[in-house]
Amino acid sequence: AAGAFDALIKIAEDCPEVMVEAEGAGGPPLAALLPVLLEYLKCPVAEQRRAALDVILPFAVENIMGEEKAVPPPMVPHMEHYLAGLGALSTDPDPGVREKVCKAIVRLLVTRTEYVEPHMSSLVTFMLQSTADMARCSSSSSSVALEACEFWPAFSYLSEDRCTPKMMEEVEKALPSLIPVLLNNMVYTQDKIVELMEENELQRQRRQKIEEGGAQTATISDDQPVFHRSRSRATSKTTTADLDEDGGDIDDDDDDDDLFSSDDNEWTLRKCSAASLDALSLAYGPRAVIPPLLPCLQEGLAASEGPQENPWVAEACILALGAVGPACIEAM
């Protein structure tokens, strides 16, 4: 079964048109295949449920026939069954299945909005729960949350002719619950905090070596906050401050800088949550966003003081202020 699914996934991704074009009296292959694939969504084997989702998705969301927004004819009579299958899998115990369900819903929202709109209330509830799917010690749970979080900016950037007042209303009702979740997701994970602290210690040690070596300049800024420290050197070339008296690198390990690869280009839940807050604030404005956000910011910024000091929460609040700033700065 695994080999057959691999072949079907390859066809669906690379040349789906061969599955939807009529061939002989039996009609297009997809017409006969879809009922079988939909049954596989109920399969007890998680790997096969995931594979079935991968095969169906391109036929549900891609413009295979060359007609903008047109669902391939063999898929049309099965769309409601497909949506029902996604709904049934929304509580699947396998994180990989839930991740693919979230991905499918986001794609459907963007390309098949007319099918999503009647189910908007239940979809918003599910995507909110999935955005908070954060036993964050688990990378698989983080992947579910990241896929679900994509829903909010995707929704916010829908054109006016596709986003109905009912859809706007359903998301607005969720904002008081959603905004604290987004803010929580913007706090660095514990693993990331440990990584940043270790990096900061390495930089402190390097600065100490530079100072002990009598170098005139240092490459690390003394007043740079730990959670904003750069992962790269100031220049790509080795400076005199990086060399010992013999002309060699002051570090015994030449690759200290490589211990922490830059995540600037990595799309993370933290970044997606900030983008979601930004997009939602632009879509709804300060009237809907500030009331649920402000108490969270006040509590989070207060966390940087006192016996329970947590600067990482305060840092996330500052990031949130930057995210909503373009839409809400005057109201705040």
TrEMBL record:
Keywords: Cytoplasm, Protein transport, Repeat, Transport. The keyword Cytoplasm applies. One of its GO terms (biological process) is protein import into nucleus. Residues 205-258 are annotated as: Disordered. Gene3D superfamilies: Leucine-rich Repeat Variant. Residues 242-258 have a biased composition (Acidic residues). It is found in: Cytoplasm. PANTHER family: IMPORTIN BETA. This is HEAT repeat-containing protein 1. It comes from Corethron hystrix.
